[in-house]
Give the backbone structure.
Amino acid sequence: MPLSLTFLGAAGTVTGSRFLLEDGPRRVLVDCGLFQGLKELRLRNWEAFPVAPATIDTVLLTHAHIDHSGYLPALVRDGFRGRIHCSEATRDLCAILLRDSAFLQEKDAAYANRHGFSKHKPAKPLYTIRDAEAALERFAGLPFGKSQALDDMTLTLRHSGHILGAATLDCLWRGQRIVFSGDLGRYDDEVMLDPEPVSEADYLVVESTYGDRRHDSGHAQEALAAIVNPTVARGGTVVIPAFAVGRVQTLLYHIEKAMASGLMRRVPVFLDSPMAVSANELLCSHLEDHRLAPDACMRACEVATYVRDVEASKALTENPMPKIILSASGMATGGRVLHHLKRFAPDRRSAVVLAGYQAAGTRGASLLAGAETLRIHGEDIPVRASVHNLPMLSAHADADEILRWLGDFHTAPRETFIVHGEPEASAALKRRIEAELRWKCRVAQPVERVVLA
Ligand SMILES: [Zn+2]
């Protein structure tokens, strides 16, 4: 049986990363993410996994984001019994993220049942906290930069930047070297490391989130101050939906620096996400995985008041004083940020700042597109606050940076597969790879299986 690769997710879309490597009966799954955004995508989370989870030997994870890890509790519940290998920081972050994901699933189902706006009666969670706990028991953390044998595969993790613990995976299996980019971060970021070069691959799977875009190279602290200062001067609140892991820490770093330099008015900053609080602590305990010195790490984490319980979160929503609120989720698909948006989006004095990728079909994407109302908990909420996008704060490489990372390969891979992008972004990256590198490449199609001969 020849070695094969099947694109079970993140093909034609940015979420649901799931790639299956097969060699006869041996099956290795690379990433195991949730689909997010458009309803037709989210519904795919409820379909049975395309291969029986019990037949998968091993899972490898590039990083902890839910669109790469969030299906694991269901995979384990439905029969997967192997190990889940990833970096140590990814393992630690997943301990926070998967429990939180399960908590949100349970809470949303309960909320829908209480308020009767689910079509399903009763609404059920996709998985439970108990399922998440069972998945976490299967995790094994690996160090960066060392080749290690996992049964008959040799795996090497290298830093990909992006978020704490994020890795590119270099899998040498049956004489073929298959490299997965995972999500690539940015070069010269003040917090995260550069994506580490990879020099060779027989086959390469590369992300294309921003394959058709170049990030504004503007100064993050100046851009933030230019929004925060006038907003608080007119008595408004700045709401920043932020991925609790990654963006929050970078935002806190820039806010602290901007206030310390006098660029930004000193206003109260609230971090309203119990998960982000724990993620901050992890940042300070994995110092080798980012650029911040211990004291800078502490200062960034201390600039905010941490809001842990729901009552305090609700009190914050009611509090009219000018302030900055960072709260998950980053695409406003769920979480406590919804309550803040309900309160502050209709307020002309306030501002909403988007600082990460907003997948199609999310409230974040609607805000970016200039929507006049947002549907939250069955209500249409008017948007009168100013809405801002700060792509320079993105955790994702832009098209030039993806090309820069590809440029470090010494020779062209036999074939390159483009994944993790909306169709236009993936097509644009394909054109650039062909024109600038003259590599053989293709945009992976959903559920497409390719033979790696
Ligand atoms: Zn990611």
